[in-house]
Amino acid sequence: MADITKKIGLSLGADICWPLCYEQVMRQLDLKIAYGGDTVRLEVERVMIEPFDLKQPCSYAVVIDRLTHWYHTSREWIKKAVAMDDLYVFNNPWSVQAMEKHTSYAAMMHLGMPIPETWMIPPKEYEPGNPDLKPTLRQYAKLFDLARIGKQVGYPSFVKPYDGGGWRGVVKVDDEAGLWKAYEDSGKSVMHLQAAVHPFDRFVRCIGFGPQTYTVLYDPSGPLHDRYTMQQNFITKEDEEHLRRVTLTINTFFGWEFNSCESLRKDGVWYPIDFANPCPDSQVTSLHYHFPWLVKAYLRWSIFCAVTGRKMRRTLDWDAYYAIAAQREMPYEEKLAAYGKLADERLETARFDEFCAKHLGHLDGVAWEFFATQPAKDAVRLKVQALFPAHEVEEFTELFWGRIQRWRAENRPA
After folding, report:
1. Distance between CA atoms of 89 and 344, rounded to whole angstroms?
2. What secondary structure does DSSP assign to 301-321, as a single string?
3. Residues 289, 22, 255, CA angle at the centre, nearest 5°?
């Protein structure tokens, strides 16, 4: 039996709070896991940005990536390390780069999910300087009747960029005049026009992290720090399982192990509306009460992947899902159950649960204790200082800290 140390890399951007908490709890866990005939220890290191030789070896077993969706140097280093060094990273950088909301809508429509009616609209304006643009548009671009499309989709509806971006450019339109204004204001962006799910009685965000899922009642009309509500028991266990299957189907289809799925319920039907979020919000300033769950989810999945040497699925295989979708007589709920079974197989849910029960049984207690400490409160304060004006730092630090203490009061380990 050998003593080995595996390194987990954190590839970070503006993240402040969760990495500090992740590192502290990892140290306090002080893991020495007997696995595969060895004793495995874990070390956490932040990944630096620097020039690199494509043949340079990678020292990490796992990298948690928070940069691929916008910072190209880190993305290309990660792709190199996966291709050459067998690095395990979440999420799959090729999928994050290639799959936007448009593709995710089309694919999930094919799998039978009740995605609201969605149209893609050519851009209002174009980048200058391309000599091929005018002849292309003159020869092939058809004039279209935006009012007719709006009438077909119906009102209210939403104009939003086809590739998403944290509520960027999302406009609710209630009539033809509103649609015209939203289109005129959209500039060079390629937009979707999507029917609203209206009226709805539940707006739920389901976070998927490996096989772990967590549902939150979401209030999009609230300020950012109140959108994740603290309401409990807002859906049935059957609805929760339905949303779990939807989320894990999407995640495993696209190779995303960390993603969030927003769904609206109308007349008893859940409509997924926004689910290409493969670098979802991880900040205490929006998650507050729910933040400790997320930190623990980061720990469980990364530790499991590092210690067990889980192999990364480098390429996407949609055929198994499409084979289920092709069974035309199968009701949607039965298809969703079959997709969910496939997702559990790909995520090794049973193996993960067994690993956590055997090796991470003390995590809940360690995290519960940590979130009462000064270093935990300091992590909250640092994030608040980065986002709020100086005169609001104390007020919002205490607000978020108080919500975490409410979580502790309601989630004391057995």
Report:
1. 19
2. HHHHHHHHTPPP--S---HHH
3. 90
Which of 8, 19, 67 is closest to 279 using CA atoms?
67
Classify 402 as helix, strand or coil. Answer: helix
pTM listed for this prediction: 0.96
Cα separation, 389 vs 332, in Å, equals 49
Residue 139: left (phi > 0), alpha (psi -120 to 50), or beta? alpha
**E strands within 239-327?**
258-266, 269-274
Q: Are 240 and 215 in contact (CB under 8 A)?
A: yes
**Spatial separation of the C-alpha atoms in residues 155 and 197, rounded to whole Å:** 10
Peptide linkage before 331 cis (omega within 30 of 0) = no
Q: pLDDT of the chain along its 414 residues, tens only?
A: 799 999 999 999 999 999 999 999 999 999 999 999 999 999 999 999 999 999 999 999 999 999 988 999 999 999 999 999 999 999 999 999 998 899 999 999 999 999 999 999 999 999 999 999 999 999 999 999 999 999 999 999 999 999 877 778 899 999 999 999 999 999 999 999 999 999 999 999 999 999 999 999 999 999 999 999 999 999 999 999 999 999 999 999 999 999 999 999 999 999 999 999 999 999 999 999 999 999 999 999 999 999 999 999 999 999 999 999 999 999 999 999 999 999 999 999 999 999 999 999 999 999 999 999 999 999 999 999 999 999 999 999 999 999 999 999 999 998
Please provide residue 150's backbone torsions phi and psi, each rounded to the nearest 5 degrees.
-60, -40
Token pair of 291 as six digits: 């933040």
Cα–Cα distance between 363 and 348 in angstroms, integer?
Answer: 20
| Structure-token pair, residue 385 | 């200082």
Collect all residues with Cβ–Cβ distance below 8 Å to 198 and sequence separation of at least 6.
Answer: 156, 266
Q: Measured between alpha carbons, how far is 99 from 103 in angstroms, rounded to an integer?
A: 6
User: Quick check: 92 and 314 in contact, CB under 8 A?
Assistant: yes
- Say if residues 323 and 253 touch (Cβ distance below 8 Å): no
Tokens of 199: 């009226």
- Torsion angle, CA of 247/251/252/257, rounded to 10 degrees? -120
Task: Find residue 206's DSSP bridge partners.
Answer: 215, 261
Cβ pair 296, 371 in contact under 8 A: no
Evaluate the CA torsion angle 355, 359, 361, 362 in order and state its sign.
negative
Helices (H) and strands (E) in the chain, counts: 16, 13
C-alpha distances in Å from residue 151, one per residue of 114, 120, 192, 413: 20, 15, 15, 54
Strands 157-161 and 171-173: antiparallel
